[in-house]
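Internal ticket - ligand job 172, shikimate-3-phosphate:
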Amino acid sequence: MIVLLGYMGSGKTAASQHLAALLGKDAIDLDALIEKQESGSVRDIFEQKGAIYFRKKEREALEKVLTDDDVAILSLGGGTPCYYNNMDLIASYAHVTSFYLQASVSELLTRLTPEMAQRPLLNGLKSPEELADYIGKHLFERSQFYNKATFTIKTDGKNPEEVAREIVATLF
Ligand code: S3P
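stdout (structure tokens):
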């Protein structure tokens, strides 16, 4: 199983779809699995049941999907690696190779500014300056978890197809 991880806006879902096309396999998104199981959007789950509930459901969905032999490509949510011992769990499976899609703060800022209002963690921020500060600190805190991935792919200036090709080149 190939697992893609990285900060919000790092292009995990888009890269996983290109990867699926290149490898002729299906890609699954952990957020989409949670939405299906909970019959509601991630945004609604955050708003109505809170972040702790979401992280619990995320952990449960992760445990289940990692043991599903039919899943070939999995993209995680940006926070998945940073809760419970999720990265250690991922690393404990010999059949899993994980990729950290690494993007710089400035690249993430460009990608996330138009989406600020829709994202549960960012919708309380008031300006692009606040967003820049938030991403800088948050990415620094999260990097220790992301860096536990098997491989790191730098994504700045690359489109999702190029990222997917680089993943394939790393694997085969
Ligand atoms: C989150 C990232 C989101 C989603 C939720 C929390 C995070 O996933 O799981 O809004 O903590 O970074 P994407 O990275 O796919 O947007």
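Auto-summary: The mean pLDDT is 97. Residues 128-146 form the longest helix (19 residues).
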